[in-house]
Specification:
By secondary structure, the chain is mostly helical. The protein has 3 helices and no strands.
Length: 79
């Protein structure tokens, strides 16, 4: 794996917690940060996919954005 060094600034308290967690998990700070970034990216891509699907379904069903909350509430009352 080709790597590149990146400098970032973090609040001291956050870095202290990160270092503590890395120590508990027997991994380096870099490994912890890589995993955190991978997790964040994965979550964001998943959310984009979910929102894209929702937008396509809304368009298909001709649902306007301002109607969504009302439709959700109506659905929940029917449960």
């Amino acid at each position: 794996m080709q790597t590149q060094i990146v400098n970032i600034s973090l609040p001291k308290k956050l870095l202290k917690v990160a270092d503590s967690l890395a120590g508990e998990e027997l991994r380096t700070r870099s490994e912890l940060f890589r995993e955190a970034i991978r997790s964040y990216i994965s979550r964001e891509l998943r959310l984009k996919s979910i929102f894209s699907y929702g937008e396509k379904q809304a368009k298909k069903l001709k649902i306007k954005e301002n109607e969504v909350e009302k439709l959700i509430n109506e659905y929940r009352k029917g449960q």
